[in-house]
């Protein structure tokens, strides 16, 4: 009898948890999102919550407003071109890949990307593929044919065919 009671309580808690998760708004941005979206060349930026300014050493000073929900980070300088931005990740085992936003340069050809799209360049296979993004709690997932790239702050992982092929990937300034 105790076992039946425990099972019913567990099912009730699971139902409440899934209901609460559905009710939470998901923006896909968090306190680390700016690290992959704002280039080093941008001296004044919005990190999704606060206004920031980089000093001569590259260290940023920001306002200290609390935000329960982060917005999309943005460079606040008109002279910085964010439509052509590339982020490089180095992963366990010496593997690496890059994500291009706005425009992907392939030899002498430029591929213009739409909002929410990135081009992934796999540095091991010397191949590239177009991925489409969707917001996750605390990050973004980009998917393409048989490939998933998950970004959580400045960390990333890549799965192909359901297997993780690049793990513990970290942003390297580009």
From TrEMBL:
Keywords: Signal. Residues 1-20 form the signal peptide. The keyword Signal applies. It comes from the Bacteria. This is Lipoprotein.
């Amino acid at each position: 009898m105790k076992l039946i009671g425990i099972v019913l309580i567990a099912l009730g808690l699971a139902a409440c948890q899934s209901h609460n998760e559905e009710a939470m708004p998901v923006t896909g941005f968090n306190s680390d999102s700016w690290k992959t979206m704002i280039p080093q060349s941008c001296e004044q930026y919005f990190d999704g919550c606060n206004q920031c300014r980089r000093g001569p050493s590259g260290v940023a000073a920001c306002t200290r407003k609390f935000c329960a929900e982060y917005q999309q980070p943005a460079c606040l300088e008109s002279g910085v071109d964010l439509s052509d931005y590339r982020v490089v990740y180095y992963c366990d085992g010496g593997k690496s890949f890059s994500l291009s936003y706005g425009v992907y340069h392939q030899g002498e050809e430029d591929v213009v990307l739409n909002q929410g799209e990135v081009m992934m360049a796999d540095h091991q296979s010397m191949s590239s593929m177009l991925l489409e993004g969707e917001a996750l709690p605390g990050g973004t997932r980009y998917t393409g044919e048989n490939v998933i790239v998950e970004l959580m702050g400045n960390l990333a992982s890549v799965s192909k065919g359901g297997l993780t092929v690049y793990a513990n990937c970290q942003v390297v300034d580009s």
